[in-house]
Amino acid sequence: MYQQTLDYLFSQLPIYQRVGKAAYKADLNNTIALCQLLGHPENGFRSIHVAGTNGKGSTSHILASILMEAEYKVGLYTSPHLADFRERIRINGQMIPESFVVDFVANHRKDFEPIQPSFFELTVGMAFQYFTAQKVDIAVIETGLGGRLDSTNVITPEVSVITNIGLDHTHLLGDTIEQIATEKAGIIKDGVPVVIGHANAIAHEVFVATAAQRSAPIHFAAKQPPFSYPTDLLGNYQLENLKTARTTIGLLQQLGWNIDEQHIQQGARHVVENTGLLGRWQVLQQHPLTIADIGHNEDGIKQVLQQIKATPHQHLHFVLGMVNDKACDQVLAMLPKTATYYFCEAKIPRALPLAELHSNARAHGLQGHPYASVQQALESAQNNANESDLVFVGGSTFVVAEVV
Questions:
Q1: What mean pLDDT do residues 368-387 have?
Q2: Among the listed ranges 87-96, 128-137, 248-257, 328-337, which one has the minimum average pLDDT value?
Q3: For residues 268 and 261, what is the distance between their CA atoms, to the nearest angstrom?
Q4: Which residues of 226-249 are buried (b: 16+ CB within 10 A; e: fewer)?
Q5: What is the pLDDT of residues 203-217, one digit of tens each?
Q6: For residue 123, how far is the Cα from the chain centroid?
Q7: pLDDT value, residue 20
Q8: 3, 40, 274, 376, 393 from 32: Cα distances, Å
């Protein structure tokens, strides 16, 4: 029954990961209707709401890990999943049971269908219902796209968090930093404190103005001291996410949550172990060193390239696939021309066709060959690599999803 339920969710409902823009609903009407149908589960738990272009998933997992160490019962809602649909909905690191997924869809399917929800909208309803039913102390809720019109934006959190702003999903959120920052700032609620992880001058102005309009105390993580605790998160870019999480925890402490420095230290040390985080500078194999990372937009790729540069290696073998609605040329222009590329296409309709990726890459001076699958590309890269080489897998979340 579980597989049949997944087939229904993936095939019958519009899902952004597969079809892109057609699945995006630019209002909250469906989500509000779902919440009414379910008895308003969005009001059944306290929460932290996390938005941002990059880092929101990692920051959400860090927050959940710290709260778990403080012995709270912690819900965690993130997207997309990599290996298993149930990664999206967890309590204390444990994925939602298959039985809950099956029963939720079976019990409500007839009532849902007149609403015609998207996959994401239905999944948000499922998460909120599960967290309420399980009486979590607090849930960390990551937005899907944007913020203002994101399906998760029906909660009133303890703290709102915006990790950073970059140009991504411009076909939906706007093609300027100001427009995207305005969408993300839509999660700022009246009187609810907001933490900003990183903001350039334009985004900073938008956040300050929105917070002032809503009488929301605003806090900038960049102004806090460096985060100095050891962590199991690899990748230097995580230091910014750790600092953002630490600033958020500081506000929870002020609000009366029982969290001490030891909880923060242990939470940072055991993020992957506590929460099951995947795909962030994840080591897949040691010989040759093989690493995967879901960074895929310009800012994400920039961070990945900095990390590759900081990783000792002789030659870089890059397994690369992309989706068709990203700034493909801008990303390809950033990639090192000295690497050997293994071009591939993830098994989703949104994947950039292999021939198009290969042609565009050659136009940017990138050398390599196309492969029929992600797995074939990875195997070829590992077979061609010497002991001192580095094999990297990335360019798209969905390429990484096929190897973790």
A1: 98
A2: 328-337
A3: 11
A4: ebeeebebbbebbebbbbbbbbbb
A5: 899 999 999 999 999
A6: 15
A7: 44
A8: 28, 9, 32, 44, 39
Tokens in use for 265?
Answer: 């230290």
Rounded CA separation 226/146 (Å)? 28
Helices marked H in 13-118 — which ranges? Answer: 16-19, 29-37, 56-69, 98-112
With beta carbons less than 8 A apart as the criterion, state whether 223 and 246 touch.
no
The vertex-126 CA angle with 123 and 130, nearest 5°, equals 140
Instruction: Give the Cα separation of 150 and 48 in Å (integer).
Output: 15
Give the HSE-up count for residue 383: Cα atoms under 13 Å, Cβ half-sphere: 7
Tally the residues of the chain: 404
- Dist. CA 372–CA 349, nearest whole Å: 15
Is residue 288 within 8 A of residue 387, CB to CB? The reply is: yes
pLDDT at 23 over 50: no
291-323: per-residue pLDDT in tens? 999 987 888 899 999 999 999 999 999 999 998
Res. 14: pLDDT tops 70? no
**Per the structure block, which two tokens stand in for 196?**
């900003």
Q: Is 64 exposed, middle or buried (0-12, 13-18, 19+ CB in 10 A)?
A: buried
Alpha-carbon distance of 56 to 41, in angstroms, equals 23
Residue 386 — very low, low, confident or very high, per pLDDT cuts 50/70/90?
Answer: very high
Q: Give the model confidence (pLDDT) of 84-124 as tens digits.
A: 999 999 999 999 999 999 999 999 999 988 998 888 999 99
- Sign, CA dihedral 242-247-252-258, equals positive
Other CB atoms within a 10 A radius of the CB of residue 372 amount to 10
